[in-house]
Specification:
Elements lengths: L2 H27 L4 H19 L1 H4 L4 H25 L4 H8 L2 H11 L7 H18 L8 H23 L5 H21 L11 H25 L5 H8 L2 H12 L6 H18 L2 H5 L1
Helix pairs in contact: 1-10, 1-11, 1-12, 2-9, 2-10, 4-8, 4-9, 5-7, 5-8, 6-8, 6-11, 7-13, 9-10
Length: 288
């Protein structure tokens, strides 16, 4: 199997972890500060990756620290803006608007970096967003002020993916991801210190269960794999895999929270998976 195809599957597995973690986080955070949760999540992920790649950390340079910080800043700002947006808008709106980064990434790549984007990728993005809409917008979208924060978050998430792609062949991917996640942990720690709802050692076991799963699988695994994968995968294809998250979240909600699985969700999932396959197939090469 080609490396790009292997990494594509590993990324899809990572979005499954994202989707499962959504249910765990929902029960774990409850009415507490989401920034405390995020600080623990990113902090534990940094610790785990630092232990795994301890030998590589001995080769850390200021250039790598600078690159990792530039990667981590848009990821941090995107997470904070998304959290603020969720306080003023619905989960439905947040999921769909955040998913707009699947269009923003090829748009930025084409307009800012002057890199060509295949027509099939644009088509795949539209198909995937249609599938996402079917999954999350059961009662339509009603935009409000929180959606403006979420739109800004989508821009920063797109910037994060593009920055990972830019630095992927210039620095050690594992070192930059450790620095990037450390930036996120410190930023969320600072935000939590300003949050009056912050409880630093929650007694609820659901909180710690959610933190452990989110930090190990949805953060350490996912972002490490993504950093390595972007040596072989284009940024817009990475963004397409992101849209698998609501698919897995819907199935996890059904299994873990007893939520119902509608026909719209199944059809939306088919749209998203079709878009992934379409983006990966090069028709011209196959005809040749």
């Amino acid at each position: 199997m080609l490396k790009r195809q292997l990494y594509l599957l590993l990324l899809v597995l990572g979005t499954a972890f994202w989707g499962i973690s959504f249910s765990l986080v929902k029960t774990g955070v409850a009415d507490g500060s989401p920034f405390v949760f995020l600080a623990y999540k990113f902090g534990i992920a940094v610790l785990v990756l630092a232990i795994i790649f301890a030998r590589r950390l001995m080769q850390l340079t200021w250039h790598t620290v600078f690159a990792g910080s530039l990667i981590g800043l848009p990821l941090l700002i995107g997470n904070v803006l998304q959290t603020i947006g969720l306080q003023h808008t619905s989960v439905t709106n947040s999921a769909f608007i955040t998913g707009l980064d699947v269009l923003l990434i090829p748009l930025f790549k084409w307009s800012i970096f002057k890199k060509p984007v295949p027509k099939r990728v644009w088509l795949s993005c539209v198909i995937a967003l249609t599938g996402l809409y079917l999954i999350v917008a059961r009662n339509g979208l009603h935009l409000n002020v929180g959606d403006l924060w979420t739109m800004a978050c989508a821009i920063f998430f797109a910037s994060y993916v593009l920055s990972v792609g830019y630095f992927s062949n210039k620095h050690d991917a594992m070192l930059t991801v450790v620095i990037a996640l450390a930036v996120c942990s410190l930023g969320c720690l600072f935000a939590a210190m300003l949050d009056k709802r912050a409880i630093w050692v929650p007694a609820e076991p659901f909180f710690w269960r959610g933190v452990l799963f989110a930090s190990l699988f949805a953060t350490a695994y996912m972002y490490a794999v993504q950093s390595a994968a972007q040596r072989y995968l284009e940024e817009e294809k990475v963004a397409l895999t992101y849209l698998c998250e609501p698919v897995f979240a819907a199935f996890a909600g059904m299994l873990l929270l007893g939520e119902s699985l509608s026909l719209r969700t199944v059809i939306g999932a088919v749209f998203i998976l079709t878009a992934l396959v379409l983006a990966e197939i090069n028709i011209n090469k196959q005809q040749a």
